[in-house]
Amino acid sequence: MEFAPAQGLNIALSQYAPNKQIWIRGKQYTSKAIYSPYRDERSDAWRKRRLYFECSVCHHAKTELYYEEGLREVRDCEACRSSNSFGPAKRWFRPPGFAHPIDREPVTKADELIESAYATRAKLVMQTPSKNKAWIAVNERVRAFPTREYLLVSNSGPDGDGYHYCTGCGRIESAKDPETNLFQQHSRPFLSDESEACPGTFTASKIVLGTDFVTDISLFSLSLSAPFRLRPGNTETNVALRTICEAVAKAACRMLEIESGEILAEYRPALTELGALGTEVEIFLYDTLSGGAGFSTQLAGRAAELFRNTLGILSGCPEGCDASCYRCLRNFRNKLDHRFLDRKVGEQLLRAALEGGYPEYPPDRIQSSLDVLFTDLTRQLSTDFQFERDVVRTAKDSSRVRVPILAIRRADLKELWISLA
């Protein structure tokens, strides 16, 4: 053993996952094996494998005790209530560690990049507490619940296809475009008492790597009324709630005067009928330290102050950016989510939850969107239509209305009135 870099497993599932290329002292090593220096730890981990279910619509997930007949089982999702979307069930186990195989020399100049996968965000598996539990009311639409529960983190491989894993020798490959066929004879990745190659008869297909850990959590329930509805799995749902999660985690760290990243936030549909309809969503803050540090649970009783500070972050970017920037919501950790961060959408939704009613969407944002749409329509359809901006017309009830974009069909002079909402 030359080097033994260490990370908590919830982080290692992304940083050291199979196919990850890691630079240490000028050499590039590639993760291609599940490894432990203790003789029986790898086999014990496989023996404790579980069944893993994940919804293809809303990405709710959970694990259950393993039984062979349960493999590839498909169910209805308990979160979004989508039919036959929860599964198919896969084998899931907690890897004791990762390693560069001994038969592969590290290289001193960058090798061709191999596709790898990141772990999922932390998923809260617990059921939504019933209303007679010890919820803390913030207002008639928002409530908080401090708890200590397990969070689930998993890595399903590139494109969610999982990994092929040889339980005999420990070598692992992504199921998508594997470099080595583990179902036939292959070299062993570690020094072994066995002199011959591994026969490949102990390879399991399409497995999921993961871990679960208990930590301190504050769960917040937000009830929404028309016209707001956040259907599980929709892009607009992800934009609004991902934005609020980043802002609320930043506000929490500021309030407790702790380092950024010691508290993170995630969201899910409430595991209720209203959650499936998109009118009840849940955001949970959690301590990233496994076992918890007691930070997040303090914030359930300070929810009103927390959300006020969150609104301040969303509405008061020092740069005055249109959607997000490094002075308000962006950072290196959330770089994969930058395209989803839109502070104005997040602000409108959070104000609706905290204050009720319909907070006005920014007029300047609507005007700039209409400008883009008008230019695009004119460019593509001016042969068949004449387009005009901000034209006053008389509606059927004889009232005068302003039409943001007027399209007049050249063939018959029929008018189309176009707006954005």
Give a quick summary of the entry.
The chain is an alpha+beta fold and about 425 residues long.
Q: How would you characterize this protein structure?
A:
- There is one protein chain.
- Helix 3 (235-256) packs across helix 6 (343-355).
- The radius of gyration is 26 Å and the shape is globular.
- Helices cover 20% and strands 26% of the residues.
- The strands form four sheets. Strands 4, 5, 6, 8, 9, 10, 11, 12, 13, 14 and 15 form an eleven-stranded mixed sheet that branches.
- It is α+β, with helices and mostly antiparallel strands.
- It has three domains: 9-117 and 154-211, no CATH class; 213-355, no CATH class; 363-418, no CATH class.
- It has helices at residues 9-15, 41-47, 235-256, 273-277, 303-315, 343-355, 363-381; strands at 21-24, 27-30, 33-34, 50-54, 61-65, 90-93, 98-99, 123-124, 136-137, 142-155, 163-166, 172-174, 203-223, 263-269, 280-287, 385-394, 400-409, 415-418.
Report the mean per-residue pLDDT as an integer. Answer: 92
Low-confidence stretches: none
The total strand number stands at 18
Can you count the helices? 7
Tell me the distance between the termini. Answer: 61 Å
Strand content: 25-35%
Q: How many domains make up the coordinates?
A: 3
Which structural traits does this protein have?
single chain; about 425 residues; alpha+beta; 3 domains; 11-stranded mixed sheet; 3-stranded antiparallel sheet; 18 strands; about 25% strand; globular
Question: What is the fold's blueprint, element by element?
Answer:
Blueprint lengths: L8 H7 L5 E4 L2 E4 L2 E2 L6 H7 L2 E5 L6 E5 L24 E4 L4 E2 L23 E2 L11 E2 L4 E14 L7 E4 L5 E3 L28 E21 L11 H22 L6 E7 L3 H5 L2 E8 L15 H13 L27 H13 L7 H19 L3 E10 L5 E10 L5 E4 L3
Parallel strand pairs: 6-13
Antiparallel strand pairs: 1-2, 3-7, 4-5, 4-6, 8-10, 9-10, 10-13, 11-12, 11-13, 13-15, 14-15, 16-17, 17-18
Helix pairs in contact: 3-5, 3-6, 5-6
